[in-house]
Amino acid sequence: MALPFFDARSSVVHNRHRIDIDLLENGHVHRFMTRAALDAVVERIRPLGYLIHEISADTWHDERAMHRDLAAHLEFPNYYGHNLDAFNDVLRDIAVFSYGSDPSTTGTVLVLTDFDTFRVQYPQTAQTLLDMFAVQAHVALLGLHPMLCLVESTHVFEPVGATELDSA
Asked: What pTM value is reported for the model?
């Protein structure tokens, strides 16, 4: 059974030591310099009842591979357009539990390992992907569906969620 994400009857002290609350207080997308650090956080989140999607970006040699892999792991519908506008749209659908999420869980976590190779080859796409996740996760939280994206990368990102999105 999923633990409640937020209980208005609980005190701040009660939720203070939950790793998900700590992460969500600081945003929806978080970068980890090492795989060990990322794995340690994932293992702390796992017992909290989140649906966790772990995806290795090491096979993302182009944008098409990225979309294909995300669509398969997150169970996007067959009509998914395999472009960033379509990705933004399906993130909204994940937020309302259409696919890639489950209302019986605490929330949804996207874990991206080996992100550096893709980020170096496609920096704008990588940044936009994270920006879109941050924006849609913020909206999802308003509906009480916490969403986190945990990224293994040694590269420093621009402020995530701060860039202008044409389709947001």
From this structure: 0.86
